[in-house]
């Protein structure tokens, strides 16, 4: 069948069919519906063929650039638990907090296990639950196993006015 005859059968300009065949024009939804009706195919068939072709061409053109992209699932582990008692029974300073937080931005969720920790200072709490959390919005930190005194300080540092989540 000629391009001219096909164009006439589906009621589009012959130039449109010629441009599609020559790769100068992509198939539109309008043309897809007309072609599918004419050839007895399900709606969207030609668009799916077009998309598959476009992806194949783009993948070939972007091979080197795509190879440099690390998938999110591989680049960021999902969850970790940090046992704070191993650092001592009292955590007071910002520097202690900074040492604790090194590398935790690689995780989406960090559970901070306060079991065995008897006291935390305002500097430690502020660094962990305000400063670091604001600097790493893609990582959520959840405190757990806190005694009454630790819970008081942590909750005070996580009040809505402090911008904590």
**Strand count, sense and closure of the main sheet?**
3 strands, parallel
User: How many distinct domains?
Assistant: 2
Helix content: 40-55%
What is the element string, with H for helices and E for strands?
HHHHHHEEHEEHEH
User: Segments where pLDDT lies below 50 for 5+ residues?
Assistant: 161-165
Rg from alpha-carbon coordinates: 30 Å
Structural class: alpha/beta
Explain what you see.
With 165 residues, the protein is of the alpha/beta class. It folds into two domains: 3-67, Orthogonal Bundle (434 Repressor (Amino-terminal Domain)), CATH 1.10.260; 72-162. It has nine helices and five strands, in the order ααααααββαββαβα. It has helices at residues 3-10, 14-21, 29-39, 45-61, 63-67, 72-75, 94-101, 122-135, 148-157; strands spanning 77-83, 90-91, 107-113, 119-120, 140-144. The chain has a three-stranded parallel beta sheet with strand order 1-3-5. It has a two-stranded parallel ribbon with strand order 2-4.
How would the blueprint of this fold be written?
Elements: H1 3-10, H2 14-21, H3 29-39, H4 45-61, H5 63-67, H6 72-75, E1 77-83, E2 90-91, H7 94-101, E3 107-113, E4 119-120, H8 122-135, E5 140-144, H9 148-157
Parallel strand pairs: 1-3, 2-4, 3-5
Helix pairs in contact: 1-2, 7-8
